[in-house]
Each structure stands twice: as structure tokens, then as C-alpha cells.
Amino acid sequence: MVTLIIFLLILGLIVFIHEFGHFIMAKKAGIHVFEFSLGFGPKLFSFRRKNDETEYMIKLIPLGGYVALAGETYDENDEELKKIPEDKRLYNKSFLRQLSVMVAGVFNNFVLGIILLFVIGLCFGSTFTTNELNGMEKDYPLYVAGARNGDRVISINDKKVRDFDDIQTRIAIAGEKSTLKVKVQDKNNKIKTYKIKPNYDKKDKRYYYGISIKTEHKTGFISAIKYAFVKFVSIYKSLILIIISLFTGKLGVDSLSGPVGIYSVVGVAKSSMYSLLYLTAYLSINVGFMNILPFPAFDGGRAFLLIIEKITGKKVPLKVETIINNIGFILLMGLMVFVSIKDVIKLF
Description:
By secondary structure, the protein is an alpha+beta fold. The protein contains 10 helices and 10 strands. The chain folds into 2 domains: about 1-120 and about 280-345, no CATH class; about 125-220, PDZ domain (Pdz3 Domain). The strands form 4 sheets. Strands 5-4-6-7 form a 4-stranded antiparallel beta sheet. A two-stranded antiparallel sheet has the order 1-2. A hairpin with a 2-residue loop joins strand 4 (about 150-155) and strand 5. The radius of gyration is 24 Å and the shape is elongated.
């Protein structure tokens, strides 16, 4: 029960921050906002503020949310839209105003992620990693292959790495049982290449390569600020690599996780405030990153069409844009169902 409550709080915070970005920018732009909803499906609770056209509501299925704007979608039979003045409709606003409304949710998610990472650095200290090997033991696969403490890992499978986050991402893309091609620069600047297979740890039930990296732990306000932005860039880079790997086939769709997978991770992280804060920051950045992708139904897809309109000088008919976004939404829901079923199967 505790895990479920924490899961809903984390998800609710991320969704609220995202949708609030769209909402506040729409209000500032003078766009009529019909609804501000956390969740989908049947309505559980709603209210209206005095002299405010927006209905605020909480719905049954807490897997997202939305802000309904006048002129956002096409519906020739929409009687409510017909009552709204033309100058309060999204499509009649300037390019910059429309774009700011579309990307505001993503911006908010990134800001939330950076703030939470800053809080981690301030409260628990900031951990910085390099690509320098340190703390390797003699039974580690990389040590057995010939690498030593003080050497620097410069690439994995011919892809450059600069810190431990890069290394972890490359290992994840390669797969936990794969043979890695690790290029190392020793203290004399000589470059050596090792091919290593992972060992299996029966106690922890995991594969490991023995790539142990030197870390620096710092405290203080300035270090926390640096940590927040360095970690944000690192997470963003890893997400880019994962998306590229999905499209190139190096990673399969079965490597993705949905709400059920996230719930499982929350169950593991709930015993540590550090882990919960980091998980929330990571998920918020992840949500922002996914939404900025130029895919229909995502904020990035809408922004992409808007930019195309600006470049070509030809407006995409609202009816066509609505159809494209609806198709994208259906595909997205199908993927979520598939990933969720996979995550459920993993639990048994």
C-alpha cells in the first residue's frame, strides 16, 4: 500500500508539473482553457474557481493528464468551441505563443528534474565520476584481461565514454551477457583493447564486468548546482542513446518499462529518500525527453508541425493535424499496453 501511494505521488507530481506548464502558458497567451485534468477516464472530483472558465478535475486512471485548449483539435460539431471568440483559440495565436504553450510542459519537467538533482547534491552530497579505473579486484573480468587501477576507459564497443554514466549506458545497450570491446589508456598513454565476458554473481543474481570507476564526493551549494546540471546532461545523453539504439535495433522494445515496471522500481527505492528523489528526477527528465520527440500525439510532434508551417508558410489543416495526433495516440497506447503486459509477466 505504501508503494502504491508513493508511486501515485511521484506520478502525480510529474504529470501536474508537466500539465501546469501548458496551462500557465496558455493562460498567459489568452487562450481559453476548457479543462485541467490529472488522470484519464471517469471523473472522480472537479471544481471551478470564481471568474475562471477552466474546470479542474481528477480522474480515475492516474496514468497521465491533459489540458484541453480551445482550437487545439478539430471537431466540426463542437458546440462549446463555437462559443469561444476567435482570438482566444490556440491556432489564432502567433507562432511563438503557440510554440511556448507546446514546449512549456517539457520545460517544466526538465526544471523539476534539475531542482531535485540539486536537492540531492545539497542534502546528500554530489558524486562525480570519471573514466578512471579504481578499486578493481583481481577476480574482475577487466582486471584479469590486463587493465589496472589508474587506467582510463576511453571507449566501449568503439563508442567513446567520458564517465561512469556513459559506461553504464553502453553496457545496457550491449546487453548484460554480451562480450565487450573495452579500449583502455594506461598511465603511459598506451592504448590497449580488451575483449571481456561478464562473470555471474550468484548471490546478487547479476552479471558484472568489473569496470570499477573512481568517484569524487563533494559537498556545498556550488557543487550541488554543478552536480544538478552535469547529471541532467548525462541522463539526457543516455536517453538519446537509448532512443537511437531502439531505432537501429540494438535495443528491443522488450527493454522498455511502463507503469508496472516503474511501480516495481518504486518498491525497491522507497526505503531511501535519496533513491526516491533520484527516481523522481530521472522520470521527470524522461517524461520531458519523450514528449519533445517529434512523434504525433507528443508535444514535440505538435511543435514539429508548427515549425514546418512556419518554414513553408503553409498551414497544416487542423483536421489533418487532429487525425495525425489521434493515430499517434492510438499507437502510443498500443505500445503502453504491450510494455505493461511484458512488465506484469516479469513479476511472475
